[in-house]
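Bench notes, afternoon.
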Amino acid sequence: MIAKSLAMFLRANPAISEACKSISPLLLEADAQYPAMVYSLRSIDPIPLLDGGTSTLAKATADLNILSESYSDSHDIADVVTGELHNYVGAFGDHYAEQIKQTADVELFESEVNLFRATRTFEIWYTKPEV
């Protein structure tokens, strides 16, 4: 499951895990400390083959949201995350990342919770493990 591999990669990466006090899927934990990261996968597209089968190569689009009490922290941490993920090729949890590219970035202020959010979107091309 690519979501598990993404979580493993983010938590095992020293630069990312040192920058974010909390890393969680979909929802911020109630007792989360900041800066924190919330991640989600928007889509997983199998790659069709000409013979009608499906390739072991797959694509996922991940949104990584960095939440912080200061604009500069959210921006700086998003830069660290981008530096670690963009153009990465190699072991990726239980998968192998063939290519990771940043495709978008958004910066917002979440007024309901008084936090700055820096979102980075990545396209992850990966090889599924053989079963």
